[in-house]
Structures are given as structure tokens and as C-alpha cells.
Specification:
heterodimer; A: 511 residues; Cytochrome Bc1 Complex, Chain A, domain 1; 3 domains; 5-stranded mixed β-sheet; globular; disordered N terminus; B: 466 residues; alpha+beta; 6-stranded mixed β-sheet; 38% helix
């Protein structure tokens, strides 16, 4: 049966050089959607025989709930384990062993929950009980060793890498998870075959050791990084309800995740209508269409999952939190702000640049160059999807004080600048500067195949239309000096802010 | 135009069911492409230029490399090259005050950044086509007529000292620093700026540093973007034509590298993880064994998920997120090292596991199949060295800068194709070592499963900031 594909071809127009009045650059984007709801965006660029493929899945960590915290990220790791074809010599045999592993894990889980009651009520049996858990863990190891007979370790990566893949990786965000790679152009069909394999019938092999790998990643990236650890305290304090409150994952939850949790999360969110694919490079629309049909056409449309209904309640007063850490002082401030589609959102993007983008930005100029209070200052949005977040996010400012400067002095200087924003209109030159930079960033963002593919896939999944890229630019350019004053006055208030400070931990015990 | 041909097909390894084609059985034709050949010319003042037209976007990218990086710093003024490079950007240029430079560049969204790592001083310039003239005139003023504003100089020096005060905040950077200080002991490759060396640097030193090293005949410019060759010639003549040679020609860093003292170096840090890095001096960047070494090391520890270290320490044992090995080539002498970040009570287990994996490769070599996969991966991804014009000109600039023939990329490809299993296994035997090495452990040894002493005589690294 022939499927009807609606192809829509439009130009992404980015007038480069607002002031020069040039006609700008025009990028032809071709779009089609399969019957199952999966959308493809294609830009043909024939200057080098390569392409980049970027897959955006509506399955970020914000969809986790107590009980499966850490699942989105661990699942992203599991997607590198291959499929029921790649990574195994005998899928059926392997699956039987996995089921045995899972039932042993279920016993370990139960036994671990029971430990505290045995310790309390039957302490004489505790040693025996702990031995029982240890034996079950050994059994789990031996089952893993048995399945290794069938596992072709890291074959998914090996096939890609052998075929010349570059930039092969994935990223877990709060709203989305991204899978991307660049390949020699004549490997387009390999890419389709590989990605369809893992997106349609993945195999979550080597689950338990991978769970440990993710814990190690967390220890490296959060537990022992002063910046990240401070940020974890900040957002855990700023959000009390919305799932954006959890930075990475909690170790205790991660330790107990199961393969069934992974399968459930996968089945719920990895469905074609939540997947946007962009392919940019030396390919043709016809071949992409043909392969998309061949490899993804049979992927069943899923049931739309429930959206996130939780709305962060308005913050009723300033919140402050401290982190004691073996590092030098740091400060981070957060203000609750809007989601990507809110009418107030574009003004925040302009303010973000006004305050923190480049050496002439207000906070850099005032705090780093003139008052010389801090070494560096950062202004950004969290979670900070490049085109805005699906849910109300936070506007963040962080600073590294110079020796002898207190975080209090920095706070005062920051608040002065924010107050100025609310009381004095931004002059025309400064606003033009910001708008020139917005345009320049759009142009640079499309320089590499990967950059453009990322723009398109993300815009499509976020706004359900990639032309949001153009809309976004128009919305940003329409921001006025009045808008900025109004937004600053409304949002940069004491009660709407959360302040986190890093206090150096004294060496050799308490102070 | 040069025709470059990469391998395509590889041998099937496993037969599978006939129903659908398993990705592992898909084969492809050779990758053929025309490597763009940049134009090269030497300006009257001795500056070498590589240029490629690129009309995909209305932008221009330039990269400059000047011989005079931090390895040339005087012993008692380490940090001078780097501070000078920062002030070239931030200290005012030509008629413009520092504030005017920032305002003019930021207004049009252009970027100029500098760095002074290793041997070279480097500058990156990005501008939209319409702003090229203005941005280039500022950039030329920075190189030729920087002002080193006194207040900005004082701020830069003070900020450098503040950064040094923060050098023990992050365990990864502690481990890296201690490793290079130890393996390149007594040589500029292993030097880091301190509060004392930074304090010694004066504005006069900075002015002298610029007068000496910033000279057109000591400089290579790589440029690509939306302009014709004639326009590029005219642009460079107009703004950089008047730049005069300083007459100073820095020699390649001459000193031999002293042999390091093997042993364990323990850096104490309160943390719930252990950072491990160990290695030894290995080879310089002209060593003909580097190609076989790269293929062998792809299998051992640099080939991502395909490498033995990742498979065994990460995938099977679940001990680390980051683990691997790297052959860091430098003009005089490079270093080969293994690294791992693991939980503290697995520090000893992971280190021993890594030693065993390396010893196994040294003793029994890699397999023919592993070697073919590594070679295919290297060759088939070669195209990504050419996929943007900016990359092509910048890579040419570095070939010339580092004293390689200009067709080094194509020669490298030939060498990768020619490498044999015997070559790979010979370099493994010759270069790999787990005995005469330095080992860095960063962490809290009270939490370790093995004590640092069990790996050799221990030196406690002073964490005092000088």
C-alpha cells in the first residue's frame, strides 16, 4: 500500500545583517511526517560527502516520578546497548537470562527492604539475612557472566565507529532526550537501520553494571564538582513542586531502578509522534523519504502519555540555602520565570544577553571590569533548552568572588543592576546590539550540519513546528525597552528569588 | 584538488538470519571526495596565509598561530605569554580604548579570542561578512599596536592570581596538573603559573613579550569565508601589510626532557571518588610509529566503547564513567597515559585492572579483528577532517607551523592504511609500560580499597598554593 506523504518545503530565512538590510540567508527545509506521526526535516547540503542525523525524543527527566528518578538518563545509556539484532548472537537465549536476572533482582530488592525490620526484630538473624543478599548478588553476577556468552559487547558503537561515525553521542535533558551522529554520506541507510533497531526493538542488556556507570557519572559530574553541587542545592530549593527541581538524579532512587522501569519509560515516551528527526548534509529528500518509510513506517503509533500537570506554586518569599564544600566561595541566584511560549519569554532572552553576554554586558562590565568584585559572572536559563523550556524555568546568575570579596557584596551589586533594569529604559544602541547578536547567533548556529540539524529537530519537538525558529527570532526582535522594564519589575523581586552560596569547608574539622 | 579515497567495505564477521539485513552485515562502497586545496601565499612581511573560499554562509573565520606560547616563558615569570595574549584582546588597540574595542566588537556580534597554551599563541576571529572590514581593522590593531592599558593589566594579573587560588577546587584539574608537573618534571612542558611567578610579571615584561614574539614572519594566518581570493589578498594587505618584522625568531623549545622520578604521587582531597592518572614519556609528533600507535591505542583505550579499557572497566565491571588511555604527542616529547575516575573503594581494583589490560596488550598484542576495526574507524572518519573549510585551512596552518609537509593529512591516511598488525603489536611491546611510570591518585585515601604505598614509593603532593 502506498502511503501518502505530505511534503512541505519552506525556507528558513535568517536576515543576516539587520542593519545592512541584506536579503539574508535562506535555508531550504523539507519536511514530511509518516502516518505514525514521526516527523522528518531534511536540508540538502552537498559540499562534503557527510551528513548529521539528530533525533529529538519527547522523553526528558521531567517525566520521572518518585520511584523512577534517574530513569530518563539511565535509559539513554541503555540505548547504546544496541537492539535485538545488534549486540547479540542469540537474542532469545539472552532474553531468557535477562528475565532470570530480573527475578533475582526482585528478590534482592525485597530482601533489602526487609533488612531494617530484621535488624530491629530478629537481630540474631541479621548475618544470615545479609549473607542471603550477598548470595543473590553473586547469583546476579553469574547470570551476567552467562549472558556475556551471547552479548557482543558494545557492537552498536563498533558498527558506527567502524563506518567512520563522528560526534556519536546522546544527551538527556529535562524535556527531551537527544541522539545524534555524523556519518559519511553513503552510510545513510546504515544510520536508518541502526536507529530504527534501537528505537523500535531495543535490548536493555548489561543493565546492572550500566546502572553503576551512571552512578559513577553522577559522582564525577555532581557530587565532586563544587559548581554542580551548589546548583543542585539551588534548584532543589527554588522548586518545591515541579520536576525541574531534581538536578540529575538521586543516588538512592538510581540504585533501585529495574529493567522493567526502563521498558515502561521507553514504551510510554519513545513513540513516533514524540520523535522529531533532522538530517542535514549530502543526502536527497527522495532517499530519506524512502528509507524513513522502510525503517520507521512500521513503528506503531503510541498512546499519547499524560502531560506534566504540575505547576510550580508562586514563591511566597525569598529562599536561601548554603553548601559547605572543599572549594572557594561561589554564589548562584535564581528567579522563577516563564515557559517558552509565554508572551513574557522573549524579553527574558533579551535580558539574559543584556546582563551576561560578552564583555560589554551589564553585569560583566559592572561586577568584573569596574567594581572588580568577581572573576567571572554567568547569566543563563535553567533547564535552558536553547529555544526555551516546555515549563516555567528559572533565570540564573552565578558569580565567583575575587579573594576577600564576600558573596553579600556581590549580591548587593547584582541587585543594583537588576533594579536599574526595572527603573531606567534601555537605550536604543544597547538594544540594537542585542538584536545584532541574536541574528549573528542564528547564522553561526547553522554553520555546521550538526548545528542546523539540532536547531530543526529541537524547534520542531518543542513547538510542534520547526518554523518556530523564525517565529522565535521575530518575537525576540520585537522586544522593546518598555517590555524589559516591565518584566524586570515584575520578576526580579526579593520574594521571587532563591540564593545559594558555597561556604568553604574548613580543613581538619569544624570551625 | 586532491582525490582522497577511504576504504569502504569490511569483512563480515557473523552470519545472521536472512530475513532483514542486520546492520553489522551492511557493506558500503569507498568514500571518495575531493579534498579542497587552500591557496597559500607569503606576504611581503613574511606572514604565511592559507585561504579557502566558502560561500555557504555570509561569515568569515580566521585563526592565527604565533610561535611564542607558554613554553617560552622565563622560569621566574611563568604565565607571561598567557597574560600577554589576554591583554592583546582586552587592553586596548590602536586608537581604541579597551572599552571601545569591546563595544565595537560586541555591537556587531563578532568574536575575537586568544589563548597561549603549549607552544603557540592563538587567536580566533569570527565575523559576519558585512562586518569583516571593521573587525579586521580591530584585530590588526591588536596584533600590531596593542595598548596594554595599565588598569586592565593590573586587573588581569589580579584575576590570574585569583584563579590560581581556586586551582584545587576541581579534582580533575588537580590530577591533570600534578600529572604533567611530574611526568615533565623540570621542563617547560610541566610548568604552571604560581602566585609568585605571576607577581613578578610587570607591564614592561608584557610590552617586551609582544615586541619580540608578535611578528608577521613568526605568524601563520588561516582564513576562510564568504569572499574571493582577491578580496582576501586585499583585506590582508590593507590591514596586516604594514606589520613589520621584529627580527626575532624563536627557536623550537630546545631543552631535553629530564627523566621523571617513577612512583606514586598522592594528592589529598576531600571527595567521594578517586581520580587516577598514570603514564610515562612516550614519543614526539614526528615519530613514524605514531600511526601504528594510534591504531593500537584505539583498541586499548582511546576508541570509546570499542576499546578494551572501556569494555572491561566500564561496561563489564561498571567501575567508571570515564576511563581510557591517550597518546599525547608534542613536538619535543609526548606522554602516554591512562586515566580513570572511580569510586574510592574501587581505586586499587580499577588501577590493577587497567595495568592488567595494558600488560596483556603489551605481551600478547591486539587481535587482527580488533586492528581492522580500529583502522577502518580511523580511515572512514577521516573525511571529518575536511568537512568545513575552516577546518581545512586551520589544519594546513598547523601542518606548516609544526614543520610537517603540507600534504601531511594525506600522508597520514597512507600511513594508517599501511599499518599492519605486526606494527601495532611491535609499538605495544616497545612503548607500553606499567612499571616505570608515575601514578597520580587524587582523593581521600581513608576511603581507598588499597593504599597508595601498595603501588610504589609515595610522594605526598603539597596542596599548598604558592
Amino acid at each position: 500500500m502506498k502511503r501518502l506523504l505530505i511534503i512541505c518545503m519552506m525556507l528558513l530565512v535568517v536576515p543576516a545583517g539587520l542593519l545592512a538590510g541584506s536579503e539574508g540567508l535562506q535555508i531550504p527545509v523539507q519536511e514530511f511526517t509518516l502516518d505514525n506521526g514521526m516527523t522528518f526535516l531534511v536540508v540538502e547540503r552537498h559540499n562534503a560527502p557527510v551528513f548529521s542525523g539528530y533525533i529529538c525524543v519527547g522523553a526528558g527527566s521531567a517525566y520521572e516520578r518518585i520511584g523512577n528518578i534517574g530513569m530518563a538518563h539511565l535509559l539513554e545509556h541503555m540505548m547504546f546497548k544496541g537492539s535485538q539484532e545488534v549486540g547479540t548472537t542469540d537474542w532469545e537465549a539472552e532474553r531468557d537470562l535477562m528475565m532470570k536476572e530480573d527475578s533475582v533482582w526482585a528478590k534482592i530488592d525485597d530482601a533489602m527492604q526487609e533488612t531494617r525490620y530484621i535488624r530491629l526484630n530478629q537481630p540474631e538473624k541479621l548475618d544470615e539475612h545479609l549473607k542471603y543478599i550477598e548470595d543473590l548478588n553473586s547469583l546476579l553476577d553469574s547470570l551476567a557472566a552467562a549472558s556475556s556468552k551471547y552479548v557482543i559487547q558494545n557492537e552498536f558503537d563498533r558498527i558506527y565507529s567502524r563506518n567512520g561515525a563522528a560526534q556519536f553521542n546522546a544527551t538527556t535533558g529535562y524535556d527531551f532526550t537527544y541522539y545524534y551522529v555524523s556519518m559519511p554520506a553513503n552510510r545513510l541507510e546504515l544510520w536508518f537501520n541502526m536507529e530504527a533497531g534501537r528505537l523500535i526493538h531495543p535490548a536493555f542488556r548489561e543493565f546492572f553494571p550500566e546502572r553503576d556507570v551512571v552512578s559513577e557519572e553522577r559522582r564525577q559530574s555532581v557530587e565532586n564538582s563544587p559548581d554542580a553541587k551548589l546548583f543542585e542545592q539551588l534548584i532543589g530549593t527554588a522548586f518545591i513542586a515541579h520536576p525541574y527541581q531534581i538536578f540529575w538524579e538521586w543516588q538512592s532512587e538510581e540504585n533501585m531502578l529495574t529493567r522493567a522501569d526502563a521498558q515502561h519509560f521507553f514504551d510510554t515516551y519513545y513513540i513516533p509522534q514524540r520523535i522529531s528527526v533532522a538530517i542535514v548534509g549530502d543526502v536527497t529528500l527522495d532517499e530519506v523519504k524512502e528509507m524513513a518509510e522502510k525503517y520507521f513506517g512500521a513503528m506503531p503509533r503510541g498512546r499519547d502519555p499524560e502531560p506534566i500537570y504540575t505547576v510550580e506554586p508562586p514563591q511566597p518569599g525569598e529562599r536561601r540555602v548554603q553548601l559547605e564544600f572543599d572549594a572557594n566561595p561561589m554564589l548562584t541566584i535564581a528567579y522563577h520565570k516563564t515557559a517558552f511560549d509565554d508572551p513574557d519569554e522573549p524579553a527574558f532572552s533579551v535580558i539574559e544577553r543584556l546582563l551576561g553576554d560578552g564583555r560589554t554586558s551589564r553585569l560583566y562590565k559592572s561586577l568584573v571590569l569596574e567594581k572588580q568584585l568577581c572573576l567571572d559572572i554567568g547569566v543563563y536559563t535553567f533547564p535552558g533548552n536553547m529555544m526555551g523550556d516546555l515549563h516555567p524555568s528559572v533565570f540564573c546568575i552565578d558569580a565567583y568572588p575575587k579573594e576577600g570579596v564576600t558573596t553579600g557584596q556581590i549580591e548587593t551589586a547584582v541587585y543594583e543592576e537588576l533594579a536599574k533594569l526595572a527603573s531606567e529604559p534601555v537605550d536604543e544602541t544597547e538594544l540594537t546590539k542585542i538584536k545584532n547578536n541574536i541574528d549573528a547567533d542564528f547564522v553561526w548556529g547553522t554553520y555546521s550540519n550538526m548545528g542546523l540539524a539540532q536547531f530543526l529537530a529541537r524547534a520542531h519537538n518543542l513547538a510542534r513546528d520547526w518554523r518556530y525558529l523564525s517565529t522565535l527570532r521575530e518575537r525576540l526582535l520585537a522586544v522593546t525597552a518598555d517590555d524589559i522594564m516591565n518584566i524586570a519589575a515584575e520578576y526580579f523581586t526579593k520574594e521571587n528569588r532563591t540564593v545559594a552560596t558555597l561556604i568553604p569547608k574548613a580543613k581538619g574539622g569544624e570551625q | 584538488m586532491k582525490k582522497v579515497i577511504l576504504f569502504g567495505a569490511f569483512i563480515m564477521m557473523l552470519a545472521v538470519s536472512a530475513s532483514a539485513v542486520n546492520p553489522r552485515d551492511m557493506t558500503f562502497s569507498e568514500i571518495e571526495f575531493d579534498a579542497p586545496e587552500p591557496e597559500r601565499w607569503v606576504a611581503d612581511n613574511g606572514m604565511v596565509i592559507f585561504f579557502l573560499e566558502d560561500h555557504q554562509l555570509p561569515v568569515l573565520i580566521a585563526h592565527v598561530v604565533i610561535r611564542g606560547g607558554e613554553v617560552y616563558d622565563p622560569e621566574d615569570k611563568v604565565g607571561l605569554a598567557s597574560i600577554t595574549a589576554s591583554l592583546i584582546r582586552s587592553g586596548g588597540a590602536g586608537e581604541r580604548t579597551p572599552e571601545q574595542v569591546d563595544a565595537d566588537l560586541d555591537f556587531v556580534g563578532a568574536g575575537i579570542s586568544s589563548s597561549a597554551a603549549d607552544e603557540g599563541l592563538t587567536f580566533d576571529v569570527r565575523a559576519l561578512r558585512k562586518d569583516v572590514d571593521q573587525v579586521f581593522s580591530i584585530f590588526a590593531d591588536m596584533l600590531i599596536d596593542p595598548k596594554f592599558d595599565s588598569a586592565k593589566t593590573a586587573l588581569e594579573i589580579s584575576n590570574r592570581k585569583d584563579r590560581i587560588l581556586r586551582q584545587n577546587d576541581d579534582p580533575g584539574s588537580i590530577t591533570r596538573r600534578v600529572y604533567y608537573q611530574t611526568v615533565f618534571t623540570g621542563h617547560p612542558y610541566g610548568r604552571y603559573a604560581t602566585l609568585a611567578t605571576t607577581d613578578k610579571i610587570s607591564r614592561a615584561d608584557i610590552i617586551a613579550q609582544h615586541a619580540k614574539f608578535y611578528s608577521p614572519d613568526n605568524c601563520i594566518l588561516a582564513i576562510s569565508g564568504d569572499m574571493s581570493s582577491d578580496e582576501a589578498h586585499a583585506l590582508i594587505d590593507k590591514y596586516l601589510g604594514a606589520w613589520k618584522s621584529s627580527g626575532f625568531k624563536p627557536e623550537p623549545v630546545p631543552q631535553a626532557i629530564p627523566q621523571f622520578k617513577p612512583g606514586v604521587y598522592y594528592a589529598e582531597k576531600e571527595m567521594n571518588q578517586a581520580h587516577i592518572r598514570f603514564g610515562h614519556l612516550c614519543m614526539d609528533d614526528k615519530n613514524p610509529d605514531r600511526y601504528a600507535m594510534e591504531i593500537m591505542n584505539f583498541v586499548l583505550g582511546s576508541g570509546g566503547f570499542s576499546s578494551r579499557l572501556t569494555k572491561q572497566v566500564r561496561t563489564t565491571a561498571g567501575l567508571a564513567y570515564g576511563v581510557g588511555s591517550y597518546n599525547y604527542l608534542r613536538p619535543l616529547m609526548g606522554t602516554y597515559f591512562g586515566y580513570c575516575v572511580t569510586r574510592p573503594d574501587a581505586m586499587g581494583q580499577a588501577t590493577k585492572m587497567m595495568f592488567d589490560i595494558i600488560d596483556e596488550v603489551k605481551k600478547n598484542g591486539i587481535t587482527a579483528e580488533e586492528m581492522e576495526i580500529a583502522r577502518d574507524a580511523t580511515i572512514n572518519s577521516f573525511i571529518f577532517n575536511y568537512d568545513t573549510p575552516a577546518q581545512v585551512v586551520i589544519s594546513k596552518a598547523y601542518m606548516e607551523y609544526n614543520g610537517f609537509p603540507l600534504d601531511q593529512m594525506e600522508r597520514a591516511l597512507v600511513n594508517y592504511k599501511a599499518a599492519t598488525l605486526e606494527d601495532c603489536n611491535r609499538v605495544a611491546r616497545e612503548y607500553l609500560d606499567t612499571e616505570n611510570i608515575v601514578i597520580i591518585f587524587t582523593g581521600n585515601k581513608e576511603l581507598f580499597d588499597m593504599q597508595p604505598e601498595e603501588f610504589g614509593p609515595v610522594t605526598n603532593v603539597s596542596m599548598e598554593i604558592k
